[in-house]
Every structure is written in structure tokens, then in C-alpha cells.
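Recap from last week: sequence in, structure out.
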Amino acid sequence: MTHQQNAHPTTSSSHSRQPIRAAAGSFLGTLIEWFDFYIYATASALIFSHVFFPGSSQFLGTLSSFATLAVGFLARPLGGIVFGHLGDRFGRKYSLILTLLLMGVSTVGIGLLPSYEQVGILAPILLVLLRICQGIAVGGEWGGAVLLASEHAPEGKRSFYASFAQLGSPAGLVLSLMVFRFISEMPEEAMYAWGWRLPFIGSVVLLLLAFVIRSGVNESPEFEAQAKAAKTEASPIRLVLRDSWPLVLLVMGACTIGISSAYFTNTFMIAYATQYLGIKSSMILECLSIVAIVQLINQPIAAWLADRVGAGRFLLITSGLSLFVPYLMFSLVSTGQSLMIILGISLTKVFSSAFYAVIAGYVVSVFPVSQRYSGISLAYQGCGALIGGTTPMIGTLIAGQSAGQWWPLALFYTALALISFVCVLLLMRRREAFAVAALR
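Predicted C-alpha cells:
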């Protein structure tokens, strides 16, 4: 009897720590995934035009590099479908272990690729294939990480706990920018020959750490309850496409500014600042590293605040303010002064990253548990494919057509924010209508 009495508090204590473990596991897993994804994005802005597309003009080389970046985004819906199915059928944790392994193999493979000068056209072909694998891995990662954290969350704290999965993005960005800040200081010959490969190959260390931590997190209690009740769907994605496609489209639109802003400020801005404003790559990378730290601090505060004022209202405020901030951002960045660059981009990121932190927890409740992984993954990754991956390319085309003038780029950013504002408003009205119907 004494032994049983002593064992119970230990079990209870372990269970009570699961929400924290789940949040930490989601954060570390997405940190690794996004570190791998961001080192590719940064390399596409600075390195790949020289290594895989030599002989092209600077404009065409950069555009080709950003095209390989976009390919990864196009593959993300496939990852959302595949791993969403696995996550809804067999468990969130099972699916997330597989995404880590796929991302690790793909990223190390990119770091080992031969250059165009060594094997010709085969080099960019292999780059694209591995980039597709990266996209599939990230496509499956996001939904599972958000669900693992939010479905473990205590009552009334879903936005805050779900935001830890979103926190992996700025943390991965900080880490990737720090690494490339170091690499950009290398002699050009060494940087293009082998220096750029270091973060890709070295990411295997982080992968092993994340694998160990994530393995210690229990399965989502909501999924376990569904599985015990034998309510898991044989083909959840089919039901999502048949019954919930309007919701998928609305969630895609709602996620627009949260996804596109990251690649507008963190990827396109590198190319714009170096090519049109004459700012050194080391300087813009240093500025973006500081901005990423601002984002890292801002996101959990924003999620905590959203749980108190209401997630829907918070999303409307932040997407509404995002309509206006790009004009101030470009005005400050155009000065070429590091402090003004940091201030301008930070003002934009404060609102877009706050939106990004909260949107994950908000859209989780849109879909039923049995279709949730498939539904949010398809919507989020579909948005990433259509908007996120093409944002740097569209920005490059706009800048080329306008000879580097910034106001058309600011209008483009405003249009992205407007899409999110309208779709969040429609989602809020839909939820209110269902709530009223349920009371009748």
C-alpha cells in the first residue's frame, strides 16, 4: 500500500509536466526544421547563384536560386498530406519523428552536393530533388508540432502553448543568420568552395538532439482519446477535401502574412539590400539577426496577450497594422544605416510575428480532432506553396521592373496583409455563426 501511495504522485507529477515537455519538444523540433530551411533560404540569396548557376547574370542567377527555394514550398502540401494522414491515423509523435529524419538526410545531402563546375547540370537537378525532400519534411512538421503542443495545453492557454511550435521559426532564423554571418566573413573562394557547406552538414548534431528530446514526449491526449474510442478516420484527407475545403481556403488566406512576411524580410530583403541599396551582405545579415531576436522575444508575449484579449481580435489588430508598416520599413532601410535598418524591419516584424505566433493555435480549433493534422497541414502548407515560396521571386521581379523603387514592394506587402485580415474576419464570423447555432 505504501509503495502504491508513493508511486502515484510520481506518475501525476510526470503527467503534469507533459504540457511543458510537449511545448519544449515542439520548439526544439521546429527549431531544427526551420534552421535547415533557413540556411537554404539564406544560401539561395547569397551562394547558390555562384555554385549552381554560374555564367548567368546576377538577376537571372538570383531568380534561379529563388526558384529552387520555391520548389521546396511547392512540395510542402505533399508533406502535409502524407504526414497529416500518418498523424491522424497513427499519432502526432510517430509522424514527427519521421519528419525529423527526412529533413536531416536531405539537409546533409545538400551540404555534400558537387558544384555545377564539377558535374554540370546534374548539380542543380540534385539540389532541386533534395530541396523537394526538405519541403516534404517541413510540410509534415508544422502541423504535428502545433498539435502536439496545443493538444497538451492546459485550458485557456492554447495560443500560448501552440506558439512554442511557432517560436522555432525565429530561433532557427537567428541560428542560421549567425552561422552565415560568420561564413560571409570568409574569403570568397573558400566561402563558395566549402564554407557554405558547413551549416548543412553540421545540422546533423542538432537533429540528433531534437530526436532524443522529442522521443521523450507522450502522444497527444486528444489523439489517444480518439484512438481508444476507435474514431480515427481511414482517410482523413479525403474527408477534409470533401467536407471542409472552404475552411481550408479560408485558413490558407488567413496564414498569408504570417508566412510571406518571413520570406519577404528574411530572404528577399537580403537580395534587395545588397543589389539595389549597395549594403554589404555581412551588414544586412547582422541587422536581420538582431531583428530575429526581437521576433523571438515578441512571439511568446504576443501569444500570452492573445489568450487574454481573444485570439481572433488579436489577429485582426496585428494584420490590420501590417497594412501600413512596410512604407515606414522601406523608408528606414533605404537610409543604409544599420540602426535604421534594424528599426524599420523590427517594426514590421513586431506585428507580423505576433500574428504568426497566434494563428497556429487559432486554426487548430477549426477542424475536428480526427481530421485536424490533415486539415491544418494542407491549409498552412498550401499557403506556403502559393505565397511563401513565391514571395522572394515576386519581390525580385517587382524590383527588377521598377528599377529598385521601394513603393511597389510596399504595396505588394500591403496586399499580403489584406488577404490575412479579410480571411481572419470571415473565420471569426463563421465561428460566431456556429456558436449561435449550437445554442439554439
